[in-house]
Amino acid sequence: MKSIINKNYIYILRCSDDTFYTGWTTNVQKRIEAHNNGTGSKYTRTRRPVELVYSENFNNKQDAQRREYKIKQMSRQEKELLIREGANALR
Q: CATH number for the domain including 35?
């Protein structure tokens, strides 16, 4: 029997007012669409459009939520560094 691995993601969005929003999901694309449709979160509803600037994936929900919490505790400068480093890692 083949096991199904559920992927869990944390993501950082840049909102139209240049603030960051961090969340977790099992489907990044669907979640971004929800944010941009106004059904993603109360915070992003008035800050559309949003764009994905960073994401990480995890094998379980608990690890993703722990990372989400850590990122939410970061300063804006720390988040900007994380985003830059993530972008550089993709090059």
A: 3.40.1440.10
The C-alpha atoms of residue 91 and residue 83 are separated, in whole angstroms, by: 13
Q: What is the mean pLDDT of residues 44-48?
A: 97
| Count of domains forming the chain | 1
Are the C-beta atoms of 22 and 71 separated by less than 8 Å?
yes
Classify burial at 80, counting beta carbons within 10 Å of its beta carbon; exposed 0-12, middle 13-18, buried 19 or more. Answer: middle
Q: Are 13 and 53 in contact (CB under 8 A)?
A: yes
* pLDDT tens string 61-78: 999 999 999 999 999 999
Contact 15, 71 (CB under 8 A): no
